[in-house]
Amino acid sequence: MFEPPEPISARTRFCAVLGQPIKHSASPAMQNAGIAALGLDWRYLAFEVRPSDLNGAILGAQAMHFIGLNLTVPHKLLALELVDMLDESARTWGAVNTIRFEGREGEQAWRPLREFSDAPLEIRSHGFNTDADAIVQGIAEDLDLELRGARVLVLGAGGAGRTAALKLASAGVRELFLINRTPSKAQAVADEIRQLWPAVKVSLDYPTSKIDLVLNATSLGLKREDPSPLDPSRFSLQETAAVYDMIYRPAETTLLKRARQAGCRAANGLSMLLHQGARALEIWSGQPAPIAAMREALWQNVNNA
Ligand code: ATR
Fold first, then answer.
1. Best of 219, 222, 226, 255 to mutate for ligand 1, by most ligand atoms within 8 A of CB?
2. pTM score, two decimals?
3. Whose CA is closest to 214, among 171, 282, 174, 266?
């Protein structure tokens, strides 16, 4: 269906994802499919980078005129301090998962580096967050759920859990239940939400009546032997209509299997990964992302791995 990409040449431009660990990442498969579908002479790579080397890696990519970068665990917070400029999305959600390199000549306006065939005089890094929007897009798409007015149990208050809870509050949910192994982190997220979205009711306990959604934002489920992120003595899956697990590998965590057996609508985090990546490619290319090609490559990569 697609033309094969041109062979790599001295003109080829690069994007990359930086993380630690990184070998499991499905982003290169997804992004290279998107890049090929757009007919761009770009490639998307993956590099394992230690947090102490993140600044050097970003500056190195900038010096080599990369188009942009994605950042994954554990770099998203650290990058807030390292980029030259923060987009509103990165400021609002307090994390950077996408960097676009931009250049300018003299006093001209900053433009994406893709628009320069020769290196501009000055280059800067511009940080964005595409994760938060992707969470609600993924949930709406896979679970056919109206978040406005919904009651949601969020498991986890680390980086992903915090962003998810804040984004759900901004999407107009009626009530949030926040559970985390370390209660002080859930408390801090609750405080933030109460200040920013006072209309949203926030509880730091399990719900006692039927809810619309359970969202797993903990890392429990990545390993087969992990215990459930949900305490079954405190909450039964019979009490929710739907379950979304941000984990996508394994494709069906124990939580999702139990949700399916309990008759809930259930989905893994693949749609979230797709939408954060699609938005990043739009930020770099200035064109609508070829979602179908990216989705297909992602599904193939994750389900055949
Ligand atoms: P991420 O950026 O993916 O959210 P993180 O900030 O390290 O990564 O958060 C991991 C989440 O999984 C946290 O909610 C963490 O709970 P703590 O805040 O108490 O650390 C949760 N988590 C990790 N391992 C866990 C375990 N064994 N039991 C319960 N929760 C766990």
1. 219
2. 0.93
3. 266
List, in order of start, the domains of the chain with CATH numbers: 13-129+272-303 (3.40.50.10860), 133-268 (3.40.50.720)
- In this structure, the chain runs to a length of 305
Quote the strand ranges of the chain, DSSP E. 13-19, 42-48, 68-71, 85-86, 98-104, 111-112, 122-128, 151-155, 175-179, 201-203, 211-216, 240-245, 265-267
**Residue nearest atom 29 of ligand 1, based on CA coordinates:** 181
Instruction: Give the distance (Å) from ligand 1 centre to CA of residue 45.
Output: 27
DSSP character for 230?
S
- From the CA of 160, give the closest atom in ligand 1: 4
Q: How far apart are CA 249 and CA 6, in angstroms?
A: 31
- Say which DSSP state 67 is in: S
Closest C-alpha to ligand 1, atom 7: 158
In ligand 1, the atom with minimum distance to the C-alpha of 74 is: 2
Residues 6+ apart with CB under 8 A from 257: none
| Max Cα distance, the chain (Å) | 64
For residues 103 and 116, the answer to whether their CB atoms sit within 8 Å is yes
| β-sheet bridge partners, residue 71 | 18
Quick count: other Cβ atoms within 10 Å of Cβ 219?
15
pLDDT in tens, 61-113: 999 999 999 999 999 999 999 999 999 999 999 999 999 999 999 989 999 99
Q: Is the CB of 182 under 6 A from ligand 1?
A: yes
Nearest Cα to 54, choosing from 93, 84, 81, 30? 81
pLDDT in tens, 202-225: 999 999 999 999 999 999 999 989
Considering only CA atoms, give the Rg of the chain.
20
Rounded (10°) angle between helices 270-285 and 131-143: 130
Residue 115's nearest CA partner among 43, 71, 65 is 65
